Amino acid sequence: MTPEQIKIFRAMSPAKKLDLAGQFHYAARQLKARGLRAQHPEWTDERIEARVREIFLYAAN
Fold first, then answer.
1. Which of 39, 40, 42, 59 suits 5 as a labelling partner, its CA being 20 to 30 A distant?
2. What Å distances lie between residue 60 and 22, 34, 55, 57, CA to CA?
3. How many helices (H) and strands (E) in the chain?
4. Number of structural domains, the chain?
5. In a domain, 40, yes or no
6. pLDDT tens digits for range 2-61
């Protein structure tokens, strides 16, 4: 992070930081789902969602 980004982040309220974390999490799940759809076009939406849940459930970091 740049010094300016750090300054902006430090100025955020805890609620805003939590909201931002939620947005990042949602975006990461959507990106993973799109990647899986590209790799496995034959998979159903249900299988994609199940795999995304599994991946994020067991993610270490």
1. 59
2. 17, 21, 10, 9
3. 3, 0
4. 1
5. yes
6. 999 999 999 999 999 999 999 999 999 999 999 999 999 999 999 999 999 999 999 876
